[in-house]
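ESCALATION

Customer reports they have been waiting on this structure for their group meeting. Please prioritize. Original submission:
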Amino acid sequence: MTWVAQIMPLFFIIGGGFAGHRAWTAAAAAGLTPAEFIRGRILRLARPAAPLFLALTSGILVLQWSGVDRASVLLIGAGVTSALWFLAAYAFSQAFLPGMVELHARARVLTLLVLLGCAIVVEAGRLSSGLAVIGIFNMIFIWLFLQQLGFWVADGWFARRGRAALLLLAADSFLLLWGMVQTGLSRVNILEDLNPPSLALTVLGVGQFALLALARPVLHRIAALAPVRVLVGAIGARLITIYLWHVPVIALLVGLTLLTPWGGPAPETPLWWWTRPAYFAATVAALFLLSALLGRLEWPVLRRIGDRAAADWAVSVSTLLIVLAPFCLMVFGLNVWVAATGTLALAASVGLQRMRRTVTIRAEMTVPLIRGL
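Update from on-call: job pushed to the front of the queue and completed.
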């Protein structure tokens, strides 16, 4: 199930690589600097993340004041923040996107092989030493590799492959992944290889995208339907908010159930399974209301003609701060100090974007600027 349902490799290929390549190409053609492009990407992550970290800080304080023991707080925090590694990985990969696009244009095969080689070295060091912390370095190489693969998609490399070639590529990828499981190089549950990322994710990403490329004609017809376009547009405009909040919302709903006299059914019992659709519907409803309130924080911060651009150094520090907040969560776990520090770091990340330098913006840059953001 996780080989199919775990789509994070696909996200970095399509959302980070393919879409990022298109956006940066349009922005660069309009005269935007890499710093301005990165600013738009970082703001779309930092602005919706700041309220979440503020909520986590408040939640930790409530738990502590309620007398919940520290071990339980750490356990709850580990579950609630389990998906927030994405902030660090995606912000880092997007900050390097303009430079990686340039490397792709100059040496696309060599760049891909170097990233893969570095990932293999890190993986070998982690497995041979038994030190899981070494795998953190693959937060760089594996996600950049998958993003780089998205540039190949943007170039049309996959589109030029025939159905037989794509089917063979998918079969080889999943066969290799099966071999990695059998030899202990990967776990069967790919979710366990997600943070820090393992080499299995690169193999899974190639196999998944080959299958997606095979299904592309059908998906195009589905995407052309008006209701689908409306749904995708509505979700896409609030996608970061939905992703950041979906685990905390699930945890909150479960927690509220446990506070009732009923207490909820025991996990994995028949009654537990029968109540999952109700929990799913409640989660969707809560995320809909939450995204309606906070989703606007993802909207592009557009500049008007004559405005000043963010200073390059401010964009660099802003990027570092948004990476720092989830990274501290990964290393130290969730406590009130980590949550509060993350809140301040994200607030500073947004605030630094106001440190500006003078720049001239042409009227014809407006549309490409929107696409870039």
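Sent to customer with the following note: The longest strand covers residues 309-310.
Escalation resolved.
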